[in-house]
Amino acid sequence: MIDTPRARLAQGLALAIPALLLGGAYISQYGFDLYPCEMCWWQRWPHFAALGLALLSTVIEPRKLWVALAALAIIASGAIGGFHAGVEYGWWEGITGCATTAVADGADALDAILNAPMIRCDTAPWDLFGISLAGWNFLISVGAGLTILALLMKRA
What we know:
Blueprint: H1 5-32, H2 38-56, H3 63-88, E1 99-101, H4 109-115, E2 118-120, E3 127-128, E4 131-132, H5 133-153
Antiparallel strand pairs: 1-2, 3-4
Helix pairs in contact: 1-2, 1-3, 1-5, 2-3, 3-5
C-alpha cells in the first residue's frame, strides 16, 4: 500500500512525468511540425510502459513495485535520449540508416511518401539553451526516475 507522503509523491511523479513528456512530444510533433526520427520513437516506448506501470500501481499490489518499475522505464527512456543526444552532438555514431519520413495524414499516400521530408537522427531539429529535445528527455527522465526511486527507498 502507498501509505507515506513520499511514496504518494513518487507515485504521482511516476504518473505525471511520462504523461507530461509524451504530451510535450505530441504537441511538438503535431503543433510545431517537429516530426520524430526513429530514435525519438524509441524514447517514447519506455514512457508508454512507465505510464502503464504507474497506472497499475493505483489498483494492484504491491504498489511500490509498480512505481519502481515505472521509474526504471523512465530512466530507460532517458538513457535512450542520452544516446540520441550524443548522436545529435556528433559525440558518437548513431545507428546506421536511422531516419524516418513524415507522413501527411489524409493525403494521397504516394504523394505523401514522395514529398515527405527525411527526418534524420543525427540532426537536432530544435534546441533550448543548446540542449536538444533528446538531451532534455535525458536530463528530465534520469533525474525524475532517480528521484522516484529515492523517494521509495526513504522511510517515514
